[in-house]
Amino acid sequence: MTAPDTAPSPLALMRERMAVADRELRRRLPEAGHEDDLLGLAAELLALAEDVSARLQEVAPVKPLACRAGCDHCCRNMIQVRPLFAILAVATAKARFTPARMTEFIDRLVKGTPFCPFLFDGRCSIYEARPMVCRGYYSLDLARCLAGDFCEKDLGYQGDGAHAAHQLMVFLFALEKRIESIEAELGLEQGLVLLDQAARILLARPDGALRWLQGERVFTAP
Question: If you average pLDDT over every residue of the chain, what do you get?
Fold first, then answer.
């Protein structure tokens, strides 16, 4: 007799992992007292997203994506992120960039750039710490990317039968909204911020992460 399939459905998997994220956010954000606490929380949320991505590929129908290393179409936009992930992105750059690259990075932020400031030589320079929104971009057709269409919008909501990449996009969108809701509950400045603007602010104000954690308007102040 064949053993019953015990793998969770994609929607059950996403609900379970969302509950984990919600619990950690509600526990750890109020307890955070240092920038390192925020960096650890952001990194764990991104690791959770990676775990969901890997498990969805096991349980959801999958066909090859058009996305490849070195393809940077989705990066050539003005990227909007939650403050938590902007803080992690800048901290990663400060820890990883050479002096020459940091000088080039700052120059981009000062002069302005029409694409993600972390994009160098066609690749993400902070790939492991790239913001959550970046992880939701995907395409099944390179021609659509070249035409400026960065995900399969016509697929719509398909429940358990969707492509794993589409399921992940739905999960990440829901998690972004959950983070925003918890930020509001805690009296933190919430909403999306432009990544280049946030990076410029955080480099100019080394205490910006802590001020955000204390409820100040760091990223959207007049």
Answer: 88
Kindly report the pTM of this predicted structure.
0.89
| Residue 74 token pair | 């989705």
Phi and psi dihedrals of 119, rounded to 5?
-85, 120
The CA-CA-CA angle for residues 25, 29, 31, to 5°, reads: 125
- Residue 218 domain flag: no
Question: And the tokens for 88?
Answer: 């992690």
Closest CA to 200 of 95, 115, 105, 134: 105
| Structure-token pair, residue 140 | 């099944």
Do 92 and 55 meet the contact criterion of CB atoms below 8 Å apart? no
Structurally, the chain folds into a number of domains equal to 1
Of the candidates 122, 117, 123, the residue with the CA atom closest to the CA atom of residue 93: 117
Distance CA 151, CA 74 (A): 9
> Has residue 2 been placed in a domain?
no
Instruction: Answer yes or no: is pLDDT of 191 > 90.
Output: no
**Could you report the per-residue pLDDT of 118-142, keeping only the tens digit for each?**
999 989 999 999 999 999 888 888 8
* Averaged pLDDT, 57-84: 84
| Residue listed under structure tokens 């007799």 | 1
Task: Give the model's confidence band at 61: pLDDT under 50 very low, under 70 low, under 90 confident, else very high.
Answer: confident
Q: 77 lies in which domain range? A: 10-213
